[in-house]
Amino acid sequence: MTKISRRGLLKTGAAAGVLAATGLPVRAQQRGGTLRLGLNGANTSDTWDSRTHSDAFMINACHGAVFDTLTEVAASGELVGELAESWEASADAKTWTFNLRKGVTFHNGKAFGADDVIASLQMHTAEGAKSAAKPIVEPIVEMKKMGDHQIQLVLAAGNADFPFLLSDYHLCMYPEGQIDEAIAKGIGTGMYKVEAFDPGVRALLSRVDSHYKDGRAGWFDSVEIIAINDASARMNALMTGQVDAVNRVDFKTEPLMRANPMVKIFEVTGNQHFTFPMLTNLSPFDNLKVRQALKHSVKRQEMVDKILLGHGAVANDIPIGPANQYFASDLPMNDYDPEKAKFLLKEAGMDGLSVDLSASNAAFNGAVDAAQLLQASAKDAGVNINVVQEPADGYWSNVWLKKAWCACYWSGRATEDWMFSTAYESGVPWNDTQWENARFQELLITARAELDTTKRRDMYTEMQMIMSAEGGTLIPMYANYVDAHSTKLTNSGTIGNAFQMDSSRIIERWWFA
User: Phi and psi dihedrals of 17, rounded to 5?
Assistant: First the structure.
């Protein structure tokens, strides 16, 4: 991820806003063909409501093809404009003015403008809305329409990262006055429109004519996205030519894939991390000593070796990753120490501990095996873990955020505040630990508005230190994004690392050679 100056975000001219969505490709693109993607993360409850999206299938289909956001993290890691051409902020980073693209239309012919931006943002704070982007939108205290193609957003407090946040895949733009229809039918401003959609099974998309990204993105005539949640079936579909690309390579079959001359694996290091969040408002995870005991009950390197087969690195119970600007890599490590874990449990008034851990490979490839490794390593610490294997379908709606301890994954975010405010700020929808720490929350607000790089680094380092020592989530490993594609496909040579599948933009950025 490009380490760009946050101060530089305060004023971005149109030149940055019109950078190619492909990340300045260096190879000649060819138009044509049908891209077939085999993706996991599909559910029968999937819809075109981006507020609800949490996994690969709908993120790639919606954010990566059918809909657009105001800004985009390019393959290079640089922030560029998508539906916003340029933006400028006040000196205190509280008032942001965005200049919107002209001549953009939704798939039903409606012209895109400022009213659509206001209506789309208000969706996330509407009564009863369950949006993971609520923490991004809620601080906006005023939305002013300055013209048909200009909007001013006033924040309750300064936020130096605000343009980055508007690239969040939940913040897709919908047509004002027609939002329910747009959600039902998939009506966006993206390069591809919906031809057919069977939730949890398949989506068929076709290329839009006369699109504002013509000449710089969207090289396929059509796209078929096939739900293949089973890892082995997904890998086999690629190796037998049934699909052109798949996400989340199954490391157990990786040697076979590498031996196939028609298959190529692409891997990037980002901020993805595999986690085991504990609901700290429930016993026994409301006890700090119990959480600390569990942090010292896991063999982290063993997980990297056996679950990731080396495609990642040991993590220290913090969600800030190696691609983040203020990643604190030198904190004291929560090493495997069963004797220390036993001591901590005694301090908690316990001779031992018995807990359930819910897991499914829907959380991440190898999640069940990872839970069983944790089960084995924790025995020497006096911890009896009962691994509950949950069904893959409905895992994110029935298990995550509901069961006291479960397996989970996070793609990470481009900025520290984005990650912390999405999952660890008090009261946000995706706070999957319900962990409360007054100093952490104080630093979160202060660091968000701070423009001095040194001061920001100190604050984010302290936050990571607090979370590693006291937080409610066990984060044993960072996982590289490892996806695979047919050798018929090619790209610019630069692959985004914000999310899997070229930051979930493979549909726009790749083409057939």
Answer: -70, -20
